[in-house]
Amino acid sequence: MIRFDNLRYRSLAIDALSIGKGITSVIGRNGSGKTTLLKLCAGITLPESGTIIIDGNPPRKDEIGWVNEFPDRNILFATVHEEIASSLRFRHIPGDEIEEHVMSCMNSMEISHLGKRSMRELSGGEKVLVALAAALVHQPRLLVLDEYDSHLDTDLTEKIEGILRQSLVTYIIRCTQDMETAARGDNVICLINGKIGCAGSPEIVFSSLVDTPFYPLAWRCRT
Amino acid sequence: MAVQDVKIVLTDVQAARKNWSLTAQGTLYEGTHLISGAVGSGKSTLALMLAGLFPPVSGQIKREDVSTLMVSFQYPEYHITGTTLEEECSSWGLDPFSVLTAANLTGKKTENPIKLSRGELKMLLLACVLAGNYDLLILDEPFSSLDCYGKERICKRLSERSRGITVIFTHEQTIFPRIDRIWEIRNGELCDRGGLPEALRHWYYAPKVIKNLISAGKIPKNITPGDLLEAACRT
């Protein structure tokens, strides 16, 4: 369980919230605090007050994977293989184990063919896949995805959905502006001006948004 | 829509980089054109070529009777020159109050644009872009990062454009303005899928909701949310 208690950071204020296992989609208007919440969950920023506890630990004491909207901003190394291996190398894991993890991760994501490619030569979608591999390779307890899908086509979005579903990550928190994607999550959190407007299953949350454009069009158009 | 002579004619256009190439042929007449394609297929390159900002390797792109042109880049940061929202609006020669009202950012006029959330920044840029009345308006991924209200607002504004050519490059799946013609980049080639609704039958990258409607025999008249809903509710 991920527990938020009296969390405060700038305009974000969450008094009490618990998130269960699986994929949690964070939705809300631009400027409602989605990225702020995700950065706090990832431990990139620290709360001004209050706590986030992931199965007993604060984010910075746990294994977290992070993918942002623009993977270019997180790229550190020249080739795909080096980029994916980097988080394991920073942990001083033996070389043969790193190789095993990297190959296994690339195989499961069907990106082995990219291993020797230069990061700079990849397409935007390939960069997202590599960023996701680099975030998954150290088997995080929590994977945080900040609008990773905003520049992806349908095929890639569905491929990544499959990868996320097959991953062994306990908690995945993602924000998206695609409500069809959000509705496929196990839980949805809707932020309104930095506060929790509604949280729960997709059915519960979207039933409170039926009169807004956030209600998934595919649900309205069920044939 | 009034018939004018404004058009873009692409003749044997070719663009190429390492491991990638694109060919394009056809004419974009007045109206709203939607161009879809996979990530990395060359949509942004084609947008730059249509605007005359990137030369094709061979062939010709002729913009006929286009005297005013605007490109909205995928990444809004590329457009920013002001250090406050007010300054940014003024740099476009626009009245800050009306732009910030259109962008739903009235309370933030003294803030630095770079401090806005990504969606807010995109909205600011689009409000500045859409305040002008251009013969040719090219929008590269205008809906990415926008929330659903923002997408609706932009679609409404685009639908109000009464003249000129609008070209929208997008991966958007649900919220569209009214579209006159659909194109897509497939296997390195720009393909003209035709006018609506007929184009919907041949649209490879059609959003799932549209594909579902078509397979149920419910062809929407266009692809605005209202059109899709009307088709879905048809008995």
Description:
Chain A has 223 residues and is of the alpha/beta class. Chain A folds into 2 domains: 1-60 and 142-223, Rossmann fold (3-Layer(aba) Sandwich), CATH 3.40.50.300; 64-139, no CATH class. Helices cover 34% and strands 25% of the residues of chain A. In chain A, the strands form 2 sheets. A 6-stranded mixed sheet of chain A has the order 5-6-7-3-8-9, sandwiched between helices. The model of chain A has no long low-confidence stretch (mean pLDDT 94). In chain B, a hairpin with a 2-residue loop joins β8 (181-186) and β9. Chain B contains 7 helices and 9 strands, in the order βββαββαααβαβββαα. Chain B has a 6-stranded mixed sheet, with helices on both faces. Chain B has a domain at 80-132. Chain B has helices at residues 43-51, 85-91, 96-102, 118-130, 148-159, 208-215, 225-233; strands spanning 7-17, 20-29, 31-37, 58-64, 69-72, 136-140, 165-169, 181-186, 189-195. Chain B is an alpha/beta fold. In chain B, α2 packs across α3 (96-102) and α4 (118-130) packs parallel to α5 (148-159). Helices cover 28% and strands 26% of the residues of chain B. The mean pLDDT of chain B is 94. Chains A and B meet through α4, α5 and α8 of A and α4, α5, α6 and α7 of B.
